[in-house]
Automatic annotation (TrEMBL):
Record Pfam families: HTH_5
SMART domains cross-referenced by the UniProt entry: HTH_ARSR
Identification of the protein by name: ArsR family transcriptional regulator
Gene3D superfamilies named among the record's database cross-references: Winged helix-like DNA-binding domain superfamily/Winged helix DNA-binding domain
Superkingdom to which the source organism belongs: Bacteria
Keywords, comma-separated and alphabetical: DNA-binding, Transcription, Transcription regulation
Organism: Desulfosalsimonas propionicica
InterPro entries on file: ArsR-like_HTH, HTH_ArsR_DNA-bd_dom, HTH_MetalResp_TranReg, WH-like_DNA-bd_sf, WH_DNA-bd_sf
């Protein structure tokens, strides 16, 4: 029952559903998810932690980056079923379609460069 409840709670938040829809198209880091959804980095991280604990996402460190992807569902039959279904759900929603288009223009290198420039301005 606990695994079922975790999956359902994770999917009860629209931002977390948006994250899953983005991750089905490409792996992303926290800063890319933050930029796409227009939320704080701490909020994006919190959402990702909930999704991971439910067995819906996974991550892999790659140097300085932490890349998030959809999980394979092996941790929970409920996560596996929902991941399989969510691939097809909401595809005709304009909000999801717009997110799907814009995520390919969001690049972590650009985000980091912009942050570096902002930090340089703040330190002078």
């Amino acid at each position: 029952m606990k695994k079922f409840t975790k999956v359902m709670k994770a999917l009860s938040d629209p931002s977390r559903v948006r994250i899953l829809k983005m991750l089905q198209r490409k792996q992303m880091c926290v800063c890319e998810i933050q930029k796409a959804l227009g939320i704080a980095q701490s909020t994006a991280s919190k959402h990702l932690k909930i999704l991971e604990e439910a067995g819906l996402t996974t991550y892999k460190k790659d140097g300085l980056w932490v890349n998030y992807t959809l999980a394979d569902g092996s941790d929970s039959p409920y996560a596996a079923t929902m991941l399989g279904n969510i691939r097809h759900w909401l595809e005709n929603e304009e909000e999801i379609a717009e997110l799907s288009r814009q995520i390919f223009d969001i690049r972590r290198e650009d985000i980091c460069r912009a942050k570096d420039r902002q930090n340089q301005r703040n330190n002078h």
